[in-house]
Amino acid sequence: MTIDEIRQRIDALDDELLKIFNCRAGLALAIGELKKAEGRAVYDPKREQMIFERMKATNPGPLDDGAIVRLFERVIDETRRLERIRTKGE
């Protein structure tokens, strides 16, 4: 396989990740709306820890568990940021 072929595969994966990240964010926003309507706290550290533990348990590598947790922390942080923006706009 050539460098260009590998880069094309990476580009295709990046396109998939973009769709997945946005889909995940939309679902998280929907959960946030439901929690808000029920008067529940949006931030749930136990849930986040469950996500991190599940991802580490199913991580096949080559990224180590610390890298996986950092990636998911970032995804969750950005979703929370989006939620704050949406809440302020209402």
TrEMBL record:
PANTHER family: CHORISMATE MUTASE (PTHR38041)
EC numbers: 5.4.99.5
Any one GO BP annotation for this protein: L-phenylalanine biosynthetic process
Residue intervals of the Chorismate mutase domain: 1-87
Stretches assigned to coiled coil: none
Any GO MF annotation of the entry: chorismate mutase activity
Uppermost EC category: isomerase
Keywords: Isomerase
InterPro entries recorded: Chorismate_II_sf, Chorismate_mutase-related, CM_dom_sf, CM_II_prokaryot, G/b/e-P-prot_chorismate_mutase
Name of the molecule in the record: chorismate mutase
Organism: Syntrophotalea acetylenica
Gene Ontology, cellular component aspect: cytoplasm
Pfam families per record: CM_2
